[in-house]
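Following up on my earlier message about 1,3-dihydroxyacetonephosphate. Here are the inputs again, as you asked, copied directly from the submission form:
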Amino acid sequence: MRKKVIAGNWKMNKTVSEANAFVAEVKDKLPQSEQVEAIVCAPFLHLPSLVEMAKGTELKIAAQNMHDQEHGAFTGEISPTMLTDIGVTHVIIGHSERREYFAETDDTVNKKVHAAFKHGLTPIVCVGETLEQREANETKNHVASQVTKAIAGLTDDQIEKTIIAYEPIWAIGTGKTASSEDANEVCQHIRETIKAETSVDVADKVIIQYGGSVKPSNVDELLSQSDIDGALVGGASLEAGSFLQLVEAGLNE
Ligand code: 13P
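Thanks, got it. Here's what our run produced:
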């Protein structure tokens, strides 16, 4: 049985003091269970205090991006070693907003995924199609190609530890959720793609999340699907009560 991983992606929201107040409120209310893992993906500036506050609790703290190099002349960037030095455990790689607004490509995603594993960080790799691609029936091919390129050159051991987040771009922040069946079909296809690259054993272990307008009212149905192992949540993760409800939903499946 795969555990459920619920990650809140705050994007560029909350001040440091608002973030600290959120973690102070949720950290001791999270379920103590192997069945579900709770992660908050916060802006870089917030990470040191959140990691400190989350120590000894069930909450994991993730970054939303990083550079693939350890150090150097890359003004404004944050390296994997800077993240691990302060105790960050996970990092989102290749979110569609990074791909769209910051010119990230499948190649940069692959480099960052390798860098994450080199430094002991767990990557949450985002993939997903545009509305045009969905309407042109290109979803499965596009997503499979993104996954294949993201994991290229990884060992089986690394692939089974990679978290994939399937986030259809048209469902992000729009209130439109993919139907649970449609979302599951793509997540199944992602697992098949990984199986073709590795083995059934490896593919069966990979955590595949769904993201795109997930909220307490639709999370149960999404998580009840065979190949959806969690959620990457934007808007509905910003409020402590709603985040706790999402995490608790992971216990019901
Ligand atoms: P929303 O949950 O706000 O649609 O955002 C999804 C997302 O992009 C999470 O990474």
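One observation from looking it over: The chain has a mean pLDDT of 97. Hope that helps, and feel free to reply on this thread.
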